[in-house]
């Protein structure tokens, strides 16, 4: 019974993390946290970028959750920590590895949902500045056509500003 509940909580947290990632990307990384995130919207020199500090923050959060689970002996805190860790792993594999090719081999999906995920994130990177970007989420990738239209609309709105 606890095993089933553990899996349900971990999966729910995994899904909720997509919203957390969207929100923090939209409001923190493209807000007061832009100083770190800017490096991710510019060409990278070397292996690391300042933006990687967000991954460190995420990892420390997951480790702290595991520590709380261990200290309190609560299995559901472990379940939450597992969901957060799972999302972090998926983000590292798909965002850093697949989209930005930071893994040691060359592989780009030719079609399907993974292709769409790459297109949606590339459209996020079409904007080099803090404002007017689209597609802040990650694992939920909107239709690239819709993102293109939104990007166009934002650019037009920017141009019409005095
Ligand atoms: Zn961004
Ligand atoms: Zn990116």
Note the quaternary state here: single chain
* Uncertain spans: none
Radius of gyration: 18 Å
The N- and C-terminal alpha carbons lie at a distance of 62 Å
Mean pLDDT: 94
Shape: globular
Structural class: mainly alpha
Report the biggest beta sheet as strand number plus sense, adding barrel if it closes: none
Strand content: under 5%
The small-molecule ligands in this entry are:
zinc ion
Number of strands: 0
By DSSP (H or I, 4+ residues per run), the number of helices equals 6
Number of domains: 1
Range of helix content: 55-70%
Order of helices and strands: HHHHHH
Give a structural overview.
This protein is mainly α and 162 residues long. It has one domain. The chain contains six helices and no strands. The chain has helices at 2-32, 34-37, 53-72, 75-99, 112-124, 144-159. It is globular. It binds zinc ion (2 copies). One zinc ion binds at residues 25, 29-30, 37, 41, 124, 133.
Write the layout of secondary structure elements.
Blueprint lengths: L1 H31 L1 H4 L15 H20 L2 H25 L12 H13 L19 H16 L3
Helix pairs in contact: 1-4, 3-4, 5-6
Bound molecules: zinc ion (ZN) (2 copies).
List keywords for this structure.
162 residues; mainly alpha; 6 helices; globular; binds zinc ion
What is the structure about, briefly put?
By secondary structure, the protein is an all-alpha fold. The chain contains 6 helices and no strands.
């Amino acid at each position: 019974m606890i095993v089933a509940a553990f899996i349900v909580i971990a999966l729910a947290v995994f899904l909720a993390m997509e919203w957390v990632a969207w929100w923090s990307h939209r409001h923190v990384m493209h807000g007061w946290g832009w100083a770190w995130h800017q490096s991710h919207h510019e060409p990278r020199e070397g292996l690391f970028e300042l933006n990687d500090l967000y991954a460190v923050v995420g990892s420390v959060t997951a480790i702290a959750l595991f520590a709380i689970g261990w200290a309190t002996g609560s299995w559901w805190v472990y379940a939450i920590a597992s969901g957060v860790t799972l999302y972090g792993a998926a983000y590292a594999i798909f965002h850093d590895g697949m989209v930005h090719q930071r893994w040691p081999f060359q592989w780009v999906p030719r079609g399907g949902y993974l292709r769409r995920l790459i297109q949606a994130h590339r459209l996020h990177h079409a904007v080099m500045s803090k404002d007017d970007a689209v597609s802040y989420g990650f694992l939920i990738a909107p239709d690239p056509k819709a993102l293109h239209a939104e990007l166009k609309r934002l650019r037009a709105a920017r141009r019409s500003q005095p």
